[in-house]
Design brief:
Keywords: Hydrolase, Protease, Thiol protease. Helices cover 11% and strands 42% of the residues. It has 4 helices and 20 strands.
Length: 253
């Protein structure tokens, strides 16, 4: 088995080996992956953090040795918590702007190492915040299918990102997240931090958000925003109608 690691701020992960294919997720700085298949321009991979599969551009692959890959799995690296953290790439005196949730791999002091390249981290390292503040930091981030950052995020990318910054790794898609945790009986017994899941007319789970309490939910739909929720689902004041039908509630902490 071959392995790789992301040494860019963000790499798009596509459903098919084509620039025109939809982006199903993103790989952030310092995240490792298994290499499944090589093509002329594309590489099929499976991510280490959530076992999500897709295709990335061959030019975006930085090789990672087997022992280094195992070390990262055994000792997860610290994450960046700010919306933007600067990494000074010492070899060419350039700066990479890292999104929240980037992995500071093989960190020594304030220096992260990827292969023979050193990245001096400018800003706080190892600082975190409470779950509410982390979630609120994403407010007004635009909805982006497959996105995982403050500059564009989808509903399950949002819940995954917020929970990961508090030390809990969720699966990537909403339907996968709905299989984790434990069921909450009803909205009345829910509490802050529970995840609510919503289905479509065919009964397929297609959306997820985070309970804030007081009849409110924060979720990514058009943008990350706070809306009202009741036993029927999410009610949009902007549209004057229900937009998502409540299916189930799950608890993880």
């Amino acid at each position: 088995m071959e392995y790789g690691i992301c040494n860019l701020a963000v790499i798009p992960l596509r459903a098919e080996p084509s620039d025109r294919s939809e982006m199903v997720s993103q790989i952030l700085f310092g995240e490792a992956f298994e290499i499944v298949e090589w093509k002329e321009k594309w590489v099929q991979i499976t991510t280490a953090i959530d076992q999500y599969s897709g295709w990335i551009d061959r030019l975006h692959v930085t090789s990672l040795g087997h022992l280094a890959y195992k070390r990262l799995q055994q000792s997860p690296p610290p994450l960046t918590y700010r919306a933007v953290t600067q990494a000074w790439k010492i070899i060419d005196n350039t700066v990479i702007y890292l999104p929240a949730g980037s992995s500071l791999v093989f960190l020594e002091g304030t220096t992260s190492y990827i292969g023979n390249k050193r990245y001096e981290i400018i800003g706080e390292i190892g600082e975190t915040d409470n779950l509410r503040n982390i979630a609120m930091s994403f407010l007004n981030s635009p909805y982006l299918w497959g996105g995982r950052t403050h500059w564009g995020i989808d509903c399950s990318g949002f819940t995954q990102a917020v929970f990961r910054l508090k030390g809990l790794q969720l699966k990537r898609d909403a339907w996968q997240q709905a299989l984790e945790g434990r069921e909450v009986e009803s909205l009345l017994t829910s509490r802050f931090g529970d995840l609510t899941f919503f289905d479509n007319a065919e009964g397929r789970i297609t959306h997820v958000g985070i309970i804030l309490g007081g009849g409110e939910i924060i979720h990514a739909s058009g943008r990350v925003k706070i809306e009202k929720i009741d036993s029927q689902g999410i009610y949009s004041e902007e549209l004057k109608r229900y937009t998502h039908k409540l299916r189930t509630i799950r608890r993880y902490f």
